[in-house]
Amino acid sequence: MARRWNGWGDDSYVKEVSPHGGALIRSVIGDCQALPDATLADVMAQVPASRLPQHPLISSDAEDRVRHARGQSFPDWLAMRSGKFGTFPDGVAFPESSSQVRELLDLARQHDFEVIPYGGGTSVAGHITPAASQRAILTIDMGRMNQLLDLNEESQIATFGAGTPGPQVESQLRARGYTLGHFPQSWELSTIGGWIASRSSGQQSLRYGRIEQMFAGGRMETLRGSLDIPTIPASSAGPDLREVTMGTEGRMGIFTEVKVRVTRLAEEEKFFVMFMPDWQQAKQAVRELIQQKIPMSMMRVSNAKETRAHAHLGTSESQFKLLDRYLRFRGLTDERCMLTFGVTGSRYQNRTSLKQIRQVLSAHGGVGGIIANMMGSIWAEGRFKFPYLRETTWQQGIAVDTLETATDWDNVDALMQDIERSLESALADEGEQAMVFTHLSHLYGQGSSIYTTYFFRCADSYEQTLARWKKLKGSASSVIAQGRATISHQHGVGKDHAPYLAAEKGELGMAVIRDLLHQFDPDKRLNPSTLLPDD
């Protein structure tokens, strides 16, 4: 795969936006004008001389440094497209073993430079973006540590190099009859070490769990030495070091070997779509399914705005009209909401689960049928392609970003409405309107995640477009921080969310986190300004 240097994923893949889908977006935000893109050659010419010592593991090549300078947050996107990167890493290392990572960390302490770990570069919260510093900056790319190192079939524990990306995790396990089952939307690019460092959640977490249920142990290289976490199924011996290290986003050390709990491949897996009469019926139905613990591998519920948007963006105009006529014939209006769900297991288990699921959904007015079932297969085929939409819309002058949170069921409606209102009104002083819609992507007995997408019009310059995003992001993040919710359910904290972390953790909690990180990195050379805003 040829990676885009200034955007998401495979440079050869294009996710088309249907004409009626594009018309829907413009009907809300207005006509758009694309901003000019910088060239790779222009950006490479800006890369300054390296401040790092020469070392056989470190490359100071300009293109390597450009390609590792940014992730996929919206500010990163604008930096890449405009060519105004600001800060580049002084070099990029490509270690192939834990001992080489250990060597690089020792070198960082000896020569007083900063270190940023790099997995797949998929960060949407500013985790890997270097901040301006008086010290040299080394980015450590873990991509060559990408192999299945061991598979203990008796205990079902697999050991991977931390730089193994999702497709290689699955292909190496499936060759042995196993799966990890961790499928974030960033799956094709993100790495197993990055999932743990940012406490990731996969699309099929109802069956396999979040990454914290999968992570069994492993090795982290720190400035204080190697930290080995044994694979014990359960322990009451004090705080869990797995939990202590997860979500630290490179501030404590760098995962080099990861041990995960794997599962035998299921006999059968299927995905379906049904439509509910309205949001309340949809939410009540999925809450009932989850709280009854009916086996499913995934369940997603889109509100009416997102249902309408996806029906336009994911179909041709003739397909959309056919679906719309069918659903209206079945009595569903513009308030209808789409449910996407999956079952994974034996054929017998799946038949039993599907019978129970359909009984609950039908009792709440759900409508399925052949057309809806076909949409389930379409979703499964393209479920990792939505991030490519940013490239297509960008070329039309349309900016798109997402944000997510999680809260208890009794707070879901109010928080979702407040988030959407904050985004829809954030640019009112400029006479601009954002197009906003939401789905619940991960469900729990206690509550749910809330995942919101927003489109807005690019301004006349990159600086003004960034200012618009800051208004949108700041407004919604403040609502979340004050709304009895987490600032991030699955994207992590990075630099973008760091100012809002204290609202969730509290004064004492923040002090504990600072003290923990200080123990491992008193000189703040590991990924500074990420997770915690540094003094």
Q: Describe it for me?
A:
Its cofactor is FAD. The active site is at 451 (proton donor/acceptor). This is FAD-binding oxidoreductase. GO terms for molecular function: alkylglycerone-phosphate synthase activity; FAD binding. Residues 85-265 form the FAD-binding PCMH-type domain. With 535 residues, this protein is an alpha+beta fold. Among the domains are: 38-141, 2-Layer Sandwich (Uridine Diphospho-n-acetylenolpyruvylglucosamine Reductase, domain 2), CATH 3.30.43; 154-264, Uridine Diphospho-n-acetylenolpyruvylglucosamine Reductase, domain 3 (2-Layer Sandwich), CATH 3.30.465; 268-383, Alpha-Beta Plaits, CATH 3.30.70. It has 19 helices and 17 strands. It has helices at 19-29, 40-44, 62-67, 74-82, 98-111, 166-174, 192-197, 205-208, 211-214, 241-245, 279-291, 304-313, 317-329, 347-363, 370-382, 389-394, 409-425, 462-481, 501-520, and strands spanning 58-59, 91-93, 114-118, 137-141, 148-152, 157-161, 178-179, 215-222, 225-229, 254-261, 263-264, 268-276, 298-302, 337-345, 398-408, 435-440, 447-457. The strands form four sheets. A six-stranded antiparallel sheet has the order 12-14-13-16-17-15. The protein has a five-stranded antiparallel sheet with strand order 5-6-10-8-9. A four-stranded mixed sheet has the order 1-2-4-3, covered by helices on one side. β8 and β9 form a beta hairpin. The chain is globular, with a radius of gyration of 23 Å. It starts with 18 loop residues before the first helix and ends in a 15-residue tail after the last helix. The model has no long low-confidence stretch (mean pLDDT 96).
